[in-house]
Write a structure and sequence with these properties.
The complex is a heterodimer of chains A (about 120) and B (about 220).
Chain A lengths: L4 H22 L5 H19 L2 H10 L4 H42 L4 H8 L1
Helix pairs in contact in A: 1-2
Chain B lengths: L1 E7 L6 H8 L5 E6 L6 H7 L3 E4 L6 H14 L4 E4 L11 H9 L5 E5 L9 H18 L11 E3 L1 H6 L9 H11 L4 E5 L6 H6 L3 H17 L1
Parallel strand pairs in B: 1-2, 1-4, 2-3, 5-7
Antiparallel strand pairs in B: 4-6, 5-6
Helix pairs in contact in B: 5-7, 5-9
Classes of the chains: A mainly alpha (about 120), B alpha/beta (about 220).
């Protein structure tokens, strides 16, 4: 069996991503459960790269049989990712905003962390 | 020092009763007024609570974390969180605190389904769905994961860091318990549902939105 460059690169990237996810678990930034999710996801990417005949089965199941359909589905995937990314960015901004509101509330209540530190010293 | 944290949004008609009935069981009561427009903060202060006011409505999760942070800065060793709508009975606080006192748990979850309570079927269904979503996102089964009635022991109080603003913070607390390997206890408690508390509860649409956020977050983190 001759391997294409993609069939080599995809598993290497997947392996790196899986190692990174488990590294985050050891640094207590991710739970074992979340790392398992990522492991399954990247294993699927590698499996598709190494056994592309799986896509033939997928094509039969989904009905994406020609190039035009594939292009439409690829762009749908890209759009889905963009919306997904924007939702996450908005959520991060909301979290930052809430953090500011919280810190201001604590300061107004006389519970400013820096003031308390100075008082303790 | 044991501190009660009560996040409140437009609960002027209920919050003073909650503050007064919690006071005999704790050293200090903190009410986090989450940008209310009905004078909740003034009512809570008149009842004897220390009030911390959010400049604008930021959600139950953000209000809870503000209260926890305030308690930490005031030197609290344990914190009990409860809702401002009178659905939790503060008389259950000593019972909830027991596992922490015996050094058997770092966090104690109240369990509304652990004893005979009149809970509407639709509320049982929503809670069941919430528990399943929490299990999927965190890998831990908690019998009443969506209850706002909890006790944080010294270790949990030191380590807890909630980032989610809305009702999804309940699931985030379960996630924190997994991440930091807290010892968990669940204690059956009383719950009082009235038309008021049911009307104030989460709608199905809100629940779905919360579930989606939790799953998205846990996958991306």
């Amino acid at each position: 069996m001759t391997l294409t460059p993609y069939q080599v690169v995809a598993p290497v990237i997947s392996l790196t991503a899986v190692l990174y996810a488990w590294n985050l678990v050891f640094r207590q930034k991710k739970t074992v459960w979340e790392a398992c999710f990522w492991t399954v996801f990247w294993c699927a990417i590698s499996a598709i790269a190494i056994f592309p005949q799986f896509l033939t089965y997928l094509s039969t199941v989904t009905g994406i049989a020609n190039r035009e359909n594939a292009v439409i589905f690829t762009f749908l995937g890209v759009l889905f990712f963009m919306v997904f990314y924007m939702i996450i960015r908005i959520e991060e901004l909301e979290q930052r905003h809430a953090k500011m509101v919280r810190e201001m509330a604590l300061r107004e209540a006389g519970l400013d962390s820096e003031k308390l530190k100075m008082k303790n010293e | 020092m044991l501190v009660a944290v009560i996040p409140a949004y437009n609960e002027a008609t209920r919050v003073s009763n909650v503050v007064r009935s919690a006071q005999p069981f704790v050293d200090t009561v903190i009410v986090v007024d989450d940008g209310s427009t009905d004078g909740t903060g003034a009512v809570a202060a008149a009842a004897g609570a220390r009030v911390i006011r959010h400049g604008e409505n930021s959600g139950a999760g953000a209000a809870t974390m503000t209260g926890i942070e305030a308690a930490r800065r005031m030197g609290a060793t344990s914190v009990v969180t409860l809702d401002a709508d009178e659905q939790h009975d503060p008389a259950d606080i000593p019972k909830l605190l027991e596992p922490v006192k015996r050094d058997e748990a770092d966090i104690v979850f109240a369990n509304r389904f652990g004893q005979r309570n009149r809970i509407p079927a639709v509320r049982r269904l929503f809670n069941g769905i919430g528990n399943i979503v929490t299990l999927l996102a965190t890998g831990r089964w908690v019998q009443d994961s969506q209850s706002g009635y909890k006790v944080f022991g010294p270790r949990a109080l030191e380590q807890v860091d909630l980032r989610m603003r809305g009702f999804e913070f309940c699931t985030e607390i379960v996630r924190e318990s997994v991440q930091h390997k807290w010892r968990v206890a669940e204690v059956p408690t009383k719950v009082i549902y009235s038309e008021y508390t049911l009307a104030k509860g989460q709608s199905f649409g809100n629940g779905v939105k919360t579930a989606m956020k939790i799953l998205l977050r846990s996958f991306l983190r």
